[in-house]
Amino acid sequence: MLLLRVLPKAAVCAALLSLVCLIWVGVSGSAALHAQSPAAAAPSVAPSTVLVAVDQRPVLNLDGEWHTILDPYLNGLGGGRNGYPMDEELPAGSNKLVEYSFAKSPTIKVPGDWNTQRVSLMNYEGGFWYERHFQYQTQAGHRAFLHIGAANYRSRAWVNGQLLCTHEGGFTAFDCEATRAVKAGENSVVIFVDSTRIADGVPTLKTDWYNYGGLTRDVSLVTVPASFIDDFELHLDRATRSAIEGYVHVEGAQAGTKVSVDLPAAKLHAEGVTDADGHVAISMAAAGLTLWSPETPKLYHVVLKAGDDTLTDEMGFRTIETSGSKILLNGKPIVLHGICIHAEAPFRSGRVNNDKDVATLLGWVKELGANYMRLAHYPHDQRMTRLADKMGILVWSEVPVYWAVQFEKEDVFAKSQQQLHEEIRRDRDKVSVVLWSIANETPNNPTRTAFLTRSAEFVHREDPTRLVTAALLVRGDAKTKYIDDPLGKALDVIGFNEYVGWYEGTPETADSVEWKVAFDKPLINSEFGGGAKAGMHGASDTRWSEEYQAEIYRHQIGMLNKIPQLRGVTPWILMDFRSPVRNLPGMQDGYNRKGLVSDQGQKKAAFFVLQKAYKENGLGHAE
Ligand code: GCB
């Protein structure tokens, strides 16, 4: 690993002491200030909730063309003579609307990042306004929520000029209550999204992926009864594997509200009544279920009822746990044959956000012979985990605590915790998700370790049914490598990234590396790989050729197989992806080229090396 990639800027600059560094820190520092001031001045209204299984509810879909205003100076937030474009309902006689008009402004498609929809916006990072109108029929005694699948990075939403919520975090879903703001007939909704990278963000200023801005996932309006199921959790009991346990939470319920859970195909039924907090524990004997696994991705139709609300879901049941250095799926040791994936849309670029993108990516995962994938480095569109449930692909899901976020800051911890909460809440009904990853390649120091130990504890509390992991850096030289990062103590499964043969040595270097592991826990190689330009051929020692990349894979497979407790791998990465830090002309041209498949779908030689290893069960050990 390159040192530069994991140290905070200030530390790197202290070491280098150059003018370039002064400019580097200065520029990003002022950008952060600029970005923070309007947010600080604005009222902060937390999203009301994250509606579980919202994609299973009937909704008013707000996808489609939205009017947009580019606002690099955040003028619309500032008020004054020509501010407040979010409020079109100004008192008669006001002249504020003179200098802007949503109606006359160009449109853009939602969901979708703005960068790939207009050539002039390709490199734009900053403020951006979205607006559209919709017809609504109010229903007495119901509540309405604006559901935003993802808005990168900070956002605010108004309905009919009324501020509903502010949100930070570019990859998680949230719902803002709109009950009092919506009206019968014509309504307007305005969403402001600011994609400016900020130093105290999660992620922070520098990442190895493109900062696609905007409303990158579906937007909808959800109408529910006055009291409704906002959250539930159902899982197979680890100890017996013959009972379903969990809870249902009914928001706004009076104590004593009747709740029922049914799995009609299995003839299972449970019921109970809510306590004063709207909570009811669920427990039902469930012997004889077909347990979910990659070989049998069986899903059951689940019907939840609470008062006037009915919610259905498609859910699988399985257990996941560790025993010593083994990972047990349904009590049996499993080896995870996987691949890392970014949410980069195949063929068209931009963010993955439709069924076609997801089917293409997961089709390649299956073709590879994989049973597992790491969704790097942030929560992906919900379609990914839904389809993984159906196709039988186990999932590692992650939050963007990436490289050196500001671990010393309590509010950065709060942001990471909020993202974990939103991620877990959205996907806890997805049986495919077995690992929550709290971080990627973070610097090994006590402040970081304390921060991430708290994250691991938080995740264990929020979801005790799954395993906690992180992708760690390793230390050592080309002869001996150590996996002994003290953060490993807080994890159930240890992920480790290494790039022997690419950032270090040649492919053959892997042959003589000896691995020393300080933990009796399952190990997953969460990244290895190297770059290749699809269609470029050469000798196996010619960098960027498909042959060189394939050679890295061959030697890595030999090396990794010598680690007895290696329970899985996710090489880096399924498909080439856009990244502003990959600028080698003729080879990278703005793309990280470590994909096994190019962004235009061409499979490289290494794809077939890994496919062969998976088909022959020749990588990793189940026990
Ligand atoms: C890493 C990072 C990943 C990068 C990759 C690379 O270690 O986790 O985000 O894209 O290396 O290509 O260098």
Helices and strands in order:
Layout: H1 9-16, H2 19-41, E1 59-61, E2 64-71, E3 107-110, E4 127-136, E5 142-148, E6 151-152, E7 154-159, E8 162-168, E9 174-177, E10 185-194, E11 214-215, E12 219-225, E13 228-236, E14 243-251, E15 258-263, E16 268-273, E17 279-285, E18 300-306, E19 309-315, E20 320-323, E21 326-329, E22 332-333, E23 336-341, H3 355-367, E24 372-375, H4 382-391, E25 394-398, H5 410-427, E26 433-440, H6 446-462, E27 467-472, E28 475-476, E29 480-483, E30 493-497, E31 514-517, E32 523-527, H7 546-561, E33 566-569, E34 577-578, E35 591-592, H8 605-615
Key traits:
623 residues, eight-stranded parallel β-barrel, six-stranded antiparallel β-sheet, 35 strands, disordered N terminus, binds (2S,3S,4S,5R)-3,4,5-trihydroxy-6-oxo-oxane-2-carboxylic acid
Structural account:
The chain has about 625 residues and is α/β, with parallel strands linked by helices. The protein is built from 8 helices and 35 strands. It has an 8-stranded parallel barrel with strand order 23-24-25-26-27-30-32-33. It starts with 8 loop residues before the first helix and ends in an 8-residue tail after the last helix. The relative contact order is 0.10.
Mean pLDDT: 91
Oligomer: single chain
Largest sheet strand order: 23-24-25-26-27-30-32-33
Largest sheet: 8 strands, parallel, barrel
The helix/strand class is: alpha/beta
Number of strands: 35
The dominant shape is globular
> How many helical elements?
8
SS strand fraction: 25-35%
Name every ligand kind in the structure.
Answer: (2S,3S,4S,5R)-3,4,5-trihydroxy-6-oxo-oxane-2-carboxylic acid
